[in-house]
Fold this protein.
Amino acid sequence: MAGYIVRRILHSIPLVFGVSVIGFGIMHLAPGGPLSVYTLNPTITAADIERLRVALGLDQPIHVQYLGWVGSMLTGSWGYTLFGGRPVLEVILERVPATVLLMGTSLALAMVIGTLLGILGAVRRYSLFDYLATTGAMLALSFPTFWFGLMAIYIFAIELRWLPSGGMYSFGEEGNVLDLLRHLVLPQMVLTLVLVATWSRYARSSFLEVIQQDYIRTAKAKGLSSRRVLYRHAFPNAVIPLVALLGIQLPTLFSGALVAETIFAWPGMGRLFVDALSMKDHSILMGMVMFTALIVIVGNLLADIAIALIDPRVKLG
């Protein structure tokens, strides 16, 4: 397995390189460039902008800028923000706990609820429950995440006044766990809803395939109860594709968190990306792109290793 991990890491290097090249190119193709926000300030002259361009190395050819940026990344320096001059990696790491809290709790709920819905849909195939679950999943996948967020704010924060409409803490309640949980409910509910729709469909398909296998029919013929057959024989085999789904869903999870954090003003990495995008802070944007790419690559690697540990038929040679 150690050899497999090393090979996967080596294979990931060209992927990371490609992401960095494409991301760096897109940032520099954006209209106005990273200093365009300064042109809106009437007190800044063209000479001032030119001095900033030279100081930041933006006057050099793009390949020289890219090589310099890569060299800094490899040495652990991810650059500095255009506004405030803080280290980019430090700014990103400050937002990681909030995003991990939102994504982790949402993913855990989605896995539990989605798997249960998938199992019930597979066992009661073509029943009223199965049709309702399928229809609900299709509707959840059809509507955009921001629409669910706006509807949640309107119903639970404005009309019913049960929950806060945004933020992570109320004013003066920083560190209050109960207040944090109240603010977490709405963004978590919206993100979980989207994930459950996908997870339940995969779980249903996986369990349907397993319960139609010969060894399941043999177990039933031996007189084992349906519950024992389901949880002792079907579940361990049906859950294997769901482990692979964890790695595949990481980009979807990040994109959903980005929308949820923006709508609910949740101070995570998604909100940081949107704020940096509005200010055209290319240093933060590139740092976020690379940070997310690394997490997705590592997540897929861990998913592959988990599948090999769960399923002895899979060999990581």
Notes: The CA atoms of residues 243 and 303 lie 6 Å apart. The first helix runs from residue 2 to 29. The chain has a mean pLDDT of 83.
